[in-house]
């Protein structure tokens, strides 16, 4: 079987969890099938990517596409990563270094990619005398390319929604770029065309990334496509997220924590860590900042006993208002908080997981989320919300004290989150040994239940028309 995967993110191009998911899935699928990844270059060809690919991307082919009233050249470059062939699409639009911003450029990039994918497959057929058995579309950015490939090459397509965005495009804009053939009146909302509903209707199989998220969005979206809809949990790269790979793996966690805090200008204490996009709508960072303030202001039961011991490191960037608020809190509580407004890479993030006591994940919704899995792999106990994939993957202390791997609270509730943080900090200060079982179980739980090999096998069932929502599901979390 030859599987083609269309995506806007693949390592080393990373904006969020999509890059990790597509990269790891492709590498795991490689055990069972041949895999090719199709992606805009995003300026990657101008960077030093020697350590990311098996070889420098080499020119594979040239062709031209028509967009509006003019044609554009497209050059496709080929390389490889761990047995997966990667095709990078390049021209004056597709080479823009930003993946999703500014929106005007991003939408142009989506159109160029839509037209370039069938162009590559034409050449691929002639050069290699084979066509993919499936095209796996990742998120709405690639839906139109999947629809064209299915129409002209009779290749089935699987559509994975990593997060519902309810994206729409005007019919006028589709007509202007010569894509009027895609317009289906069933998915018109006034003059706007619902891209995700169109993709869900046209695809052969529709998947999302967690059981809880599928249920949360069932009535509003997925129930319309019952019969071809299922979930496939993501996995995590537990070989990379491994305490043995830490710079100071020979030290104990308290020793690593003290060293890391000292490097960041903080005294030793109980370390809470958050990493990712600073966003209020999905990630709930405003809730986390408010929870931290409640603790610092002694407005939570028991906070007075641990307040001086609490350390909070925030690592990420995004919403400017949240960045500013985080910096203000750092100034207000210089012995308790450090805001690192940046993306420091996977290796540095691993060092924080390996030193922190707890990773706080306050999402308002989370289709799957990789942070809780990465944290558990590193022995960093997650404190998260009962939503989506977090609810699927973290076993709550208050639900199952014998098998627990973390602590869960309801979303959008700063007081509840603050109380959970104080509760867990109190355990750390009073009886650290009680948490060691959670750390050990967390890593074992992820390796056994949320690995990419299991995800790959599940996707293979979808590719082969054998996956349905009726497949057995084992719940690890408290229903909510």
Overview of this protein structure:
It is a single chain. The chain is an alpha/beta fold. The protein has two domains: 2-231, 3-Layer(aba) Sandwich (Rossmann fold); 243-450, Glycogen Phosphorylase B (Rossmann fold), CATH 3.40.50. The protein has 16 helices and 18 strands. It has helices at 17-29, 103-128, 143-153, 171-176, 195-202, 211-216, 253-263, 285-296, 303-306, 320-332, 346-355, 371-377, 388-393, 414-430, 433-449, 452-463, and strands at residues 2-6, 34-40, 58-67, 70-81, 84-90, 134-138, 157-161, 168-170, 188-189, 192-194, 205-208, 229-231, 270-278, 310-318, 337-341, 358-361, 381-385, 407-409. Strands 3-4-5-2-1-6-7-11-12 form a nine-stranded mixed beta sheet, with helices on both faces. A six-stranded parallel beta sheet has the order 15-14-13-16-17-18, sandwiched between helices. Strands 8-10-9 form a three-stranded antiparallel beta sheet. Helix 12 (371-377) links the parallel strand 16 (358-361) and strand 17 (381-385). Helix 3 packs parallel to helix 5 and helix 8 (285-296) packs parallel to helix 10 (320-332). The two termini are 40 Å apart.
Give the secondary structure arrangement, pairings included.
Elements: E1 2-6, H1 17-29, E2 34-40, E3 58-67, E4 70-81, E5 84-90, H2 103-128, E6 134-138, H3 143-153, E7 157-161, E8 168-170, H4 171-176, E9 188-189, E10 192-194, H5 195-202, E11 205-208, H6 211-216, E12 229-231, H7 253-263, E13 270-278, H8 285-296, H9 303-306, E14 310-318, H10 320-332, E15 337-341, H11 346-355, E16 358-361, H12 371-377, E17 381-385, H13 388-393, E18 407-409, H14 414-430, H15 433-449, H16 452-463
Parallel strand pairs: 1-2, 1-6, 2-5, 6-7, 7-11, 11-12, 13-14, 13-16, 14-15, 16-17, 17-18
Antiparallel strand pairs: 3-4, 4-5, 8-10, 9-10
Helix pairs in contact: 1-16, 2-3, 3-5, 7-11, 8-10, 8-14
């Amino acid at each position: 079987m030859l599987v083609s995967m269309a995506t806007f993110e693949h390592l080393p191009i990373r904006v969020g969890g999509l890059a990790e998911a597509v990269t790891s899935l492709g590498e795991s699928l490689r055990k069972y099938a041949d895999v090719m990844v199709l992606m805009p270059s995003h300026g990657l060809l101008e960077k030093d990517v020697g350590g990311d690919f098996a070889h420098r991307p080499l020119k594979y082919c040239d062709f031209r596409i028509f967009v509006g009233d003019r044609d554009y050249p497209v050059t496709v470059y080929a390389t490889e990563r761990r047995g997966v062939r990667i095709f990078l699409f390049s021209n004056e639009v597709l080479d823009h270094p930003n993946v999703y911003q500014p929106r005007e450029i991003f939408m142009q990039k989506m159109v160029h990619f839509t037209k370039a994918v069938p162009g590559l497959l034409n050449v691929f057929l002639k050069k290699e005398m084979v066509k993919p058995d499936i095209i796996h579309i990742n998120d709405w950015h690639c839906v139109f390319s999947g629809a064209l490939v299915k129409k002209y090459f009779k290749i089935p397509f699987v559509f994975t929604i990593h997060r519902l965005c309810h994206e729409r495009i005007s019919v006028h804009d589709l007509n202007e770029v010569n894509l009027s053939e895609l317009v289906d009146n069933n998915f018109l909302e006034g003059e706007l065309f619902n891209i995700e509903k169109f993709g869900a209707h046209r695809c052969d199989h529709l998947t999302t990334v967690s059981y809880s998220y599928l249920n949360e969005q069932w009535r509003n979206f997925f129930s319309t496509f019952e019969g071809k809809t299922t979930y496939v949990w993501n996995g995590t790269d537990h070989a990379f997220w491994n305490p043995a790979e830490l710079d100071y793996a020979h030290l104990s966690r308290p020793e690593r924590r003290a060293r890391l805090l000292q490097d960041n200008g903080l005294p030793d204490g109980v370390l809470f860590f958050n990493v990712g996009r600073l966003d209020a709508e999905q990630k709930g960072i405003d809730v986390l900042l408010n929870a931290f303030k409640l603790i610092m202001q002694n407005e939570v039961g028991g906070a007075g006993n641990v307040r001086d011991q609490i350390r909070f490191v925030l690592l990420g960037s995004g919403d400017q208002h949240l960045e500013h608020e985080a910096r203000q809190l750092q100034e207000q509580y210089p012995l308790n908080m450090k805001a690192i407004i940046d993306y420091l890479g996977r290796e540095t993030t691993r060092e924080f997981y390996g030193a922190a006591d707890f990773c706080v994940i306050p999402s308002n919704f989370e289709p799957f989320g990789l942070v809780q899995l990465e944290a558990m792999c590193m022995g960093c106990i997650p404190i998260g919300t009962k939503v989506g994939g977090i609810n699927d993957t973290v076993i709550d202390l208050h639900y199952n004290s014998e098998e627990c791997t973390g602590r869960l609270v309801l979303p959008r509730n700063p007081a509840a989150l603050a109380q959970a943080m104080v509760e867990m900090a109190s355990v750390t200060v009073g009886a650290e040994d009680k948490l060691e079982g959670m750390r050990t179980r967390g890593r074992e739980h992820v390796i056994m239940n949320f690995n990419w090999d299991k995800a790959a096998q599940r996707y293979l069932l979808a590719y082969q028309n054998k996956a349905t929502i009726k497949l057995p599901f084992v719940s690890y979390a408290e229903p909510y």
